[in-house]
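User: Here's a structure from my thesis project, written as structure tokens. My advisor, Dr. K., wants to see whether a designed sequence matches the one we expressed. Can you design one independently, without my sequence as a hint?
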């Protein structure tokens, strides 16, 4: 497995990561045994980057990882997104980037994952009501306390990246990037290159559009069997 360094002075991780959201949420029903087998297969293939979020299945995903990583935690780089708010029916109802919320979310994440630290902790979105300096500052305190190793960002623009980086070194930006989705090339990509911040890209095959997953025949089949 090829490896990459996360930012200027960050950890060495596998070039490919495993996104775990679909094992708990969004893409339909998932099978627990199949999900755990997939995680184990990824680790056995040399993938050590696992991406999760505390709102994936409203805690379910972190509990699933806890179970799957029994005895293997030290060999895994866990990236966690936080801050998305959900109601009991699963609807997304906002985002909370307040320092108090940061620390509370982290406490619950550590408990659900059964670990003493998170390798990469990152707000899932920008809270328009809270300056990014306050959100990142709170995570920085958790770095100093030993609960977080590195800080990341997700789905933010160049100005926010610079402001966050001045508050605490940012290791990684998670954002969509593919041959179909190239919007980051104008401002965001030059900024992260200048600052030495890695990009962990998702949607690199545009959800199947670039891989041949979707076709006229498959589209009709999906419509027949929603």
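Assistant: Designed independently from the structure alone:
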């Amino acid at each position: 497995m090829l490896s990459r360094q996360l930012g200027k002075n960050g950890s060495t991780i596998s070039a490919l990561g495993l996104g775990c959201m679909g094992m708990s949420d969004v893409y339909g029903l998932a099978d627990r045994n199949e999900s755990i087998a997939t995680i184990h297969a990824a680790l056995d293939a040399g993938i050590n980057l696992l991406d999760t979020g505390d709102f994936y299945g409203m805690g379910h995903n972190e509990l699933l990882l806890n179970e799957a990583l029994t005895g293997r935690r030290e060999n895994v780089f866990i990236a966690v997104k936080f801050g998305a708010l959900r109601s009991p029916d699963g609807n997304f109802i906002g985002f909370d980037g307040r320092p108090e919320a940061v620390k509370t979310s982290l406490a619950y994440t550590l408990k659900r994952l059964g670990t003493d630290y998170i390798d990469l902790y990152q707000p899932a979105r920008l809270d328009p009501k809270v300056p990014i300096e306050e959100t990142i500052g709170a995570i920085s305190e958790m770095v100093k306390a030993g609960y977080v190793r590195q800080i990341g960002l997700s789905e933010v623009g160049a100005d926010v990246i610079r402001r966050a980086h001045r508050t605490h070194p940012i290791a990684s930006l998670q954002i969509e990037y593919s041959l179909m989705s190239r919007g980051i090339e104008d401002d965001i990509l030059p900024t992260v290159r200048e600052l030495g911040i890695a990009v962990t890209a998702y949607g690199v095959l545009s959800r199947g559009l670039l891989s041949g997953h979707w076709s006229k025949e498959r589209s009709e089949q999906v419509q027949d069997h929603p």
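When you compare it with your expressed construct, this may help: The chain has one domain: 3-224.
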